[in-house]
Sequence to fold (382 residues):
Amino acid sequence: MIALMPHGSCFLWNPFLTWLHASADFLIFGAYAAISVMLARFLIQNPQLWLGRFTWISFGFIGFCGIGHAINAYNIWHSAYWVEGFFKVTIAVFSWAAFTALRLSLPKAKHLIEQSTKAEQYRLELESTATQLKDHVQILENSHTELERSNSELEEFAYIVSHDLRAPLRTVEGFLQILFPEQFQLKDFELEESDRAQLAADIVSEYRRLNEVIESILQWSRAGRSEEALEPVDAELALVLAVNALQKDLLDCGAALHNEPLPVVMGRSTQLQQVFQNLIANAIKFHLPNAIPHIQIYADKEEGWTVITVEDNGIGLDVEQFGTQIFGFRKRLHHSDEYEGSGIGLALCKKMVERCGGVIWVESTPGKGAKFRFKLRLYSKP
Fold:
């Protein structure tokens, strides 16, 4: 019997050619082995992707293909061609078996793909629903906070209004008792004619005071009722309109007003004008005796926001002493005999700035002026 020669004889035992084929076969064998291990681990972690017989046949096909290349490398130095032949037949059987199993498994694979697609759609829908729920929860929380704030303001508003409305009415009632004692069953009460004229003047004064209270209530109500959407507002134009409305007061006291360029902000034009008007009017009213009011208005940018400052050299106020009362509704920080007013100006400023999505505060030292600052979002072009 003639002995079969190994493949190396065909290569004339050329070292480079011999090891080229051997290395290639061993590398292919290693690749098949690595693929089998990786695929097995993947299927263990994802058992829903197991396709039954097709998976087992595929493993057999991959494994025998790898072993076939290992035998090819072995036969470079040896001549186990019968073994190689049987392995090739086995590989052929597994190849056709894999083809048949694949053809039978395609409907199941398609079904798995459809299920995976639907699952992804459900996941996206759930994420969208969760985001919407989160937004709704945030809206509810904001509404709850706004409601609590409104209730707190309403309680304060009702208390102050009841007090401020009753005070002039009680005064008028007292004056009427003096003017018409017989109507109130007051006996032995005489009143000179000059006194009657003075009391009538006092009644008119109290009427005006009552009317002022009612007007301040209406202003407060209108400030909190605005439903207009925020829009780009030229802060400098709003300032010009406010200064024009106060032109007479500025000229009467000889006030000096200087302003730097102001940006375009998000807000409401009429409310921003009213804020400027109230702050400038306060700077005029609360100036130091025998001093010319100096008012400076400027803006500083802060990452998408601007802080507008209205600074004066007036009497100032004690921030630590008055605290939140500074911006309270009808909270007068000075006696009415010293300074006229309804005590609503700063409260209106606070409400209007907050309605524009901003905040307002004050920095001041008694006798050294005040800096009223309010922060609004800058307008950015789309």
Q: What stands out?
A: The chain has ten helices and seven strands. Residues 81-179 form the longest helix (99 residues). Strands lie at 231-234, 256-259, 264-267, 294-302, 305-312, 359-364, 370-377.
